[in-house]
Write a structure and sequence with these properties.
- This is Elongation factor Ts.
- One of its GO terms (molecular function) is translation elongation factor activity.
- InterPro entries: EF-Ts_dimer_sf, Transl_elong_EFTs/EF1B, Transl_elong_EFTs/EF1B_dimer, Transl_elong_Ts_CS, UBA-like_sf.
- With 355 residues, this protein is of the alpha+beta class.
- The chain is 48% helix and 17% strand.
- The strands form 4 sheets. The chain has a 3-stranded antiparallel β-sheet. It has a 3-stranded antiparallel β-sheet with strand order 6-7-10.
- A hairpin with a 2-residue loop joins β8 and β9.
- The chain is flat and about 80 Å long.
Length: 355
């Protein structure tokens, strides 16, 4: 059996937020395989599935630029070693100039950015002079550009602390409606900044992923129910389904028949069933799409109207404008996400990228 060191236990705890003894047991059960230990804890409902990106120490800022006609938006993440430098006027000027260069050019990668001519030299040389002036390693880590085609519109949002940025592009049928959707699109970006959806819709999932997540979600709910029961509070309903990907016409029809049977047993007049059933079916769908609510933009309940999902809000906006509106592109950057791959300091990460 592999030796389970205190450092390994701490690493697993940092990754999952599970208890120390639970982490040690998981590592013993998986013979010290930390990835299998993470899955073990999730299946037991002991992991809060904390993302490394939530705790990564990378500093810097995210900057955005949107054209006045809302047809083009750009976003860039520039990393520094310390938060102090990220607040430096020199760093802010560098960030402002960089996003403007990206917005004005046809480039799509940071590699292309470094080869652009800027202020009498290549951007790469300009960046090196700024690093020398500021006195700290700086990396233009990643960028994104989104163009709205035809009757589409794009808008963006960056949080006031510069740590989260979002771009969303919408498509509609009537080009006259596009500009009317600018503020609405920004509100969607603000929602995504706060709620962290990973993809636009459940169509990005496959059944193997859903099956794996279902095991973890059910274990998590059952674990929480133990505490709720102890406190005498209402228990979570354990779902049979967790994603729209699982809900086909046959399942929905079967559920509707079951609800009708309940109404009949309750003595509800059949004449009013059509007023009751839609709400009950919506409740069933909400209870059966927990994964979509956690990970998909369309499946989440809108922060500005938590009775409706983003999909429902889009449908209402489309009805209001007599148009069909859909989200066609979504990009979200969170400062430093994914950088922490192993126990090393951020200065080494930056130095490695500078090569």
């Amino acid at each position: 059996m592999a030796e389970i060191s205190a450092q390994l236990v701490k690493q697993l705890r940092d990754m999952t937020d599970a208890g120390m003894m639970d982490c040690k047991k998981a590592l013993v059960e998986t013979n010290g395989d930390i990835e299998k230990a993470v899955e073990y804890l999730r299946e037991k409902g002991l992991s809060k599935a904390a993302k490394k990106a939530d705790r990564v120490a990378a500093e810097g800022a995210i900057n955005i630029k949107v054209s006045s006609d809302f047809k083009k938006a750009s976003m860039v993440e520039i990393n520094s070693e310390t938060d102090f430098v990220a607040k430096n006027d020199g760093f802010k000027e560098l960030s402002s100039k960089t996003i403007q260069i990206i917005q004005d050019s046809n480039i799509s990668t940071t590699e292309e950015l470094h080869t652009l001519d800027f202020e009498g030299a290549k951007f790469e040389e300009y960046l090196k002079t700024q690093i020398a002036k500021i006195g700290e390693n700086i990396v233009v880590r990643r960028m994104a550009k989104v163009n709205a085609e035809g009757s589409g519109i794009v808008n963006a949002y960056v949080h006031s602390n510069g740590r989260v940025g979002v771009i969303i592009a919408l498509k509609c049928q009537n080009s006259e409606n596009a500009t009317k959707l600018a503020d609405f699109t920004k509100n969607l970006c603000m929602h995504a900044a706060a709620m962290k959806p990973q993809v636009i819709s459940y169509h990005s999932f496959d059944m193997d992923f859903v099956k794996s997540e279902k095991t973890a979600i059910i274990a998590e709910l059952e674990k929480e129910n133990e505490e709720l029961k102890r406190l005498g509070k209402p228990l979570h309903k354990i779902p049979a389904f967790i994603s729209q990907l699982e809900l086909n016409d046959e399942i929905l029809a079967k559920q509707e028949e079951a609800l009708k049977a309940e109404l009949k047993a309750q003595g509800k007049p059949e004449a009013i069933w059509d007023k009751i059933l839609p709400g009950q079916m919506e409740r069933f769908k909400a209870d059966s799409t927990l994964l979509d609510q956690r990970l998909t933009l369309l499946g989440q309940f809108f922060v500005m109207d938590d009775k409706k999902t983003i999909a429902q809000v889009l449908a209402e906006k489309g009805k209001e404008l007599n148009d069909n509106i859909e989200i066609v592109e979504y990009v979200r950057f969170e400062l430093g996400e994914g950088i922490e791959k192993q126990e090393c300091n951020f200065a080494d990460e930056v130095a490695a990228q500078l090569g």
